[in-house]
Each structure stands twice: as structure tokens, then as C-alpha cells.
């Protein structure tokens, strides 16, 4: 799933390559992608692109007085092309949900919003105010804008696992499964630690790790071509998606906890005092 660093890089890509161009045409291949119907996509035709922005893991492109906003969900992506085909997309079951031509179709660049897999969660809104998108309206503070004292206040009401709390977009915006694994590894915290029971030292380590990990990822991602962002993300990961490999800090084996539809990774030596967390949903949770 694209998280804060990748979505920020995609917004930067649109600022550099889309701003100043004009929306020529929008093709909708999957009607299920559109979550708003008024104004219609045709309202963007002929409008100049004036900006791009990020809210948590939401990506937006401004054209005229409207915003085209997308949430890429777990398997979505923005695929840029220097020259898109002129033929309109046909409704179907392919990976492309929506296409934006930035100029005369067949002669100009643009991008596709795509989604792999069978779970279709890619979502697009066309609005005049981003705050009217339900998910944006309920976002917590952006992860990169939270100070140490604010983080402590944010976590006070939450007695759940720290892994779950910091990936709740209503609590903190922008962190997903991958970067939460990385942040907790750097902070030397168990994913099952109780959020509102962290010590002052643990809170300080968590805040430092959150800012360091995300800032580093943003710096590595911004300026990359959209096509290379996924590879850049994987190359910078220390524990996430590295089950069975040695921890780059201590050399212990990176372990995994699997659930029905997702998994996370951690280092026992760095994070849980050497304890291996049971790999089943209903197991006793180790703190």
C-alpha cells in the first residue's frame, strides 16, 4: 500500500509534470472507482492543472476550481506516461480504473490510476473542497507534523497495541503497515506494546523514529519517477517484508506475525527482549 512517503513523491511528480498543463479528457474504465457523481469527470475537461497535494495517504490534483482526489488503497498506483493512447478506455476488468489525458489525447502525457488484484478498493472523488471527502475530513494530524508532546497526548486515550494505533488514520495520518514496522524497529518497541502505557523514554524513541524513518523515505522518494518508487521503497526497508532474513542491526532473524489478510515483521532481539510473538490471530499477546 502506498504510504506517506510514496504519496508525497507522487504529489511532487504531479507538481513537476502536470502543473501548467490542461486536462484534455478523463476516461473512466471502472464506474465503481468514482465515489462522487456531481460534478462529473467532464467538468475537469479544459481546466488548467494548478497544483497537487497530499492529505495522509490521499493524493489530489487541482484543476481549475476542482480537485481530483484518489486513495490508492492496498494495490492501487499512479502510472505516468509521456504519451497516452488516444482511444477512449473501454469498461472492463483490466487494471486501469481511470485515465487522465493532460492535453490532446494521443499527443500529450497523462496518467492511469490502476489497481492490481481482485479486491477493488481504488477510489476517486471530484470535489471543490478536499475536506468534503469523508476520509480526509476524519484524518488525524499528519505524522510528519507531530511534535513529541503532541504524540504523547495523541496516544493517551488509546489502550490498544501501538502497531494498531499508529496505523489508524483517524489517530495519525500517513503511516501504514510497512512504515509502522520500520518505525517500531528503529524505536525498539514491540508491535504489541500498549500505546498509552509507553514510558517517557519510549515515547521519545517512538517520535524520533517516526520522524527519522518517514523523512528519510520522503527524501529518497521525492524526485523519483513514479515507475521506480516501489523499488525505492523496498530497497530502504530493514524488517518489513524481510521475514527470515537477518536483522541489519543485531543479526537476529526477522520474524513475522500473520493474520487473515495481512502480516507484519519485527526483530525479537531489538524489539521484544528476545521473545518470539505467537503467529496466530487468537494467541496471547506478548507485551
From TrEMBL:
Signal peptide: none annotated. One of its GO terms (biological process) is base-excision repair. It comes from the Bacteria. Residues 238-272 form the FPG-type domain. Residues 2-117 form the Formamidopyrimidine-DNA glycosylase catalytic domain. GO terms for molecular function: 8-oxo-7,8-dihydroguanine DNA N-glycosylase activity; damaged DNA binding; DNA-(apurinic or apyrimidinic site) endonuclease activity; lyase activity; zinc ion binding. Keywords: DNA damage, DNA repair, DNA-binding, Glycosidase, Hydrolase, Lyase, Metal-binding, Multifunctional enzyme, Zinc, Zinc-finger. The keyword Cell inner membrane does not apply. Gene3D superfamilies: 1.10.8.50, MutM-like, N-terminal (3.20.190.10). SUPFAM superfamilies: Glucocorticoid receptor-like (DNA-binding domain), N-terminal domain of MutM-like DNA repair proteins, S13-like H2TH domain. Its cofactor is Zn(2+). It catalyses: Hydrolysis of DNA containing ring-opened 7-methylguanine residues, releasing 2,6-diamino-4-hydroxy-5-(N-methyl)formamidopyrimidine. This is DNA lyase. The lineage of its organism: Bacteria, Bacillati, Actinomycetota, Actinomycetes, Mycobacteriales.
Amino acid at each position: 500500500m502506498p504510504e506517506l512517503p510514496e504519496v508525497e513523491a507522487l504529489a511532487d511528480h504531479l507538481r513537476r509534470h502536470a502543473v501548467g498543463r490542461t486536462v484534455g479528457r478523463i476516461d473512466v474504465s471502472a464506474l465503481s472507482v468514482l465515489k462522487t457523481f456531481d460534478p462529473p469527470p467532464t467538468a475537469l475537461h479544459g481546466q488548467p492543472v494548478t497544483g497537487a497535494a497530499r492529505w495522509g495517504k490521499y493524493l489530489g490534483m487541482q484543476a481549475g476550481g476542482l480537485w481530483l482526489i484518489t486513495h490508492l488503497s492496498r494495490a492501487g498506483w499512479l502510472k505516468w506516461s509521456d504519451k497516452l493512447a488516444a482511444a477512449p478506455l473501454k469498461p472492463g476488468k483490466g487494471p486501469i480504473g481511470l485515465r487522465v489525458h493532460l492535453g490532446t489525447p494521443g499527443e500529450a502525457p497523462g496518467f492511469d490510476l490502476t489497481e492490481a488484484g481482485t479486491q477493488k478498493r481504488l477510489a476517486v472523488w471530484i470535489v471543490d473542497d478536499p475536506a468534503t471527502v469523508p476520509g480526509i475530513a476524519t484524518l488525524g494530524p499528519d505524522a510528519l507534523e507531530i511534535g513529541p508532546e503532541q504524540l504523547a497526548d495523541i496516544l493517551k486515550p488509546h489502550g490498544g497495541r501501538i502497531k494498531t494505533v499508529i496505523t489508524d488514520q483517524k489517530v495519525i495520518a500517513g503511516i501504514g503497515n510497512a512504515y509502522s514496522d520500520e518505525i517500531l524497529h528503529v524505536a525498539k518497541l514491540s508491535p504489541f506494546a500498549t500505546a498509552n502505557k509507553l514510558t517517557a523514554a519510549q515515547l521519545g524513541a517512538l517520535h524520533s523514529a517516526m520522524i527519522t524513518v518517514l523523512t528519510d523515505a520522503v527524501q529518497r522518494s521525492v524526485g523519483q519517477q513514479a515507475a521506480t518508487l516501489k523499488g525505492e521503497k523496498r530497497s530502504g526497508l530493514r524488517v518489513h517484508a524481510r521475514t527470515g532474513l537477518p536483522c541489519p542491526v543485531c543479526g537476529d532473524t526477522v520474524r513475522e506475525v500473520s493474520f487473515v489478510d495481512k502480516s507484519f515483521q519485527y526483530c525479537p532481539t531489538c524489539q521484544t527482549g528476545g521473545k518470539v510473538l505467537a503467529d496466530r490471530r487468537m494467541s496471547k499477546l506478548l507485551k
